[in-house]
Amino acid sequence: MTQEEVEYQKEFYQNASQELQERLERLDKDEGLSPATVGKRKHELICAHRLKFGRHPFVCSKCWSYLPVCVCHLATRSSKEWKYKNLLQVLVWTHHREWGLTSNTGSILGLTLGNNDASSHVVDTTHIDPSTDENNPCRLLMKGLPKHDEILQNILDDSARKREGDDESHGVDHDGSTLVVVLWPSSNPENAITLPQLRRELEASDPNNCFDSNPHEEVSDAMVSSSQKKIVLLAVDGTWRNARRMVAKLPSHVKRLDLDESTIRWNDSKATGDENSPSEDSSSMLSILAPLRRRGPSGKENQKTDLKVNASSLDNEKRQVCTAEAVVAALHEVGAIDTELAQQVLYATQTKVDRVRRYRGKVQ
């Protein structure tokens, strides 16, 4: 960026922040509103500001890396092939405090798996929020932002609605036209789903599989529509404490998917990101994110991902992975994405961690 562009970006962000502060102060002075209403509206304003302007004037609005070390160019589209792209959608449900953090990896999923435009990384107030595109295969939703909360609520409502004429469950007790599966362990087998069950749900909903038995049969749009059940994979993105609270708010009919260690570690020989990345052996790391985000004993607030129910502390330490790793592992295991695409996402994630770490001065 030129010096003029730097000054413009700083002034642009400062003006937006000043406007937000003035609106928050006006709410505090509004005697006609109850404290609860004031608090709710202030929270909504802060979330809307974070979506539109980000957390910092010099952080990329797409990959959430510092602008000088942006990784958006790694979000190539040539190899992005989903086997079930019309049936399966990933929702990265991000806590508002997590949104825009340079240490976040969920943003990489939106770039590499979704329809997000990575061509411009400077805040653009005219840019259409890709999360509002219901056909986007990977959407990032901010918890606390009204329009994003509404999107998720509509999906949850649809998943609870009785699916007319749907008598087959394929081993999963579910009636809705949308099957919502959250990446989170469950101690209750009634709301748990296994990876083989999820794969069967995908195969059963795939019209290419439904009509393979008679390739000469004319397939109408109505037949295809009636055979399809939309499946949403929900990834909760936040610290352990915040993520646990978010999951607790989900309705009981939402299925929970736990990943065992062999699934999580499917790609222990993953690429190490930048050629100039730190010399540590990445395969020895608990997670791609481990060098960047401090990790403590299982269950502490800085815990980034879900823990296994009734597991030992050591086992849970080994299971700590970032959001991108968990989603990629699940998609790869059920056959939704191939190894090439899965490794591409992990490479972009690793590169972001390496670059941000160096930019922060954590590498000598």
From TrEMBL:
The keyword Lipoprotein does not apply. Residues 294-313 are annotated as: Disordered. The keyword Ribonucleoprotein does not apply. Residues 3-30 form a coiled coil. One of its GO terms (biological process) is tRNA processing. It comes from the Eukaryota. Residues 56-361 form the DTW domain. It catalyses: a uridine in tRNA + S-adenosyl-L-methionine = a 3-[(3S)-3-amino-3-carboxypropyl]uridine in tRNA + S-methyl-5'-thioadenosine + H(+). It is an enzyme of class 2 (transferase). Its EC number is 2.5.1.25. Keywords: Coiled coil, S-adenosyl-L-methionine, Transferase, tRNA processing. SMART domains: DTW. Transmembrane segments: none annotated. One of its GO terms (molecular function) is tRNA-uridine aminocarboxypropyltransferase activity. PANTHER family: TRNA-URIDINE AMINOCARBOXYPROPYLTRANSFERASE 2. Belongs to the TDD superfamily. DTWD2 family. This is tRNA-uridine aminocarboxypropyltransferase. It comes from Cylindrotheca closterium. The lineage of its organism: Eukaryota, Sar, Stramenopiles, Ochrophyta, Bacillariophyta.
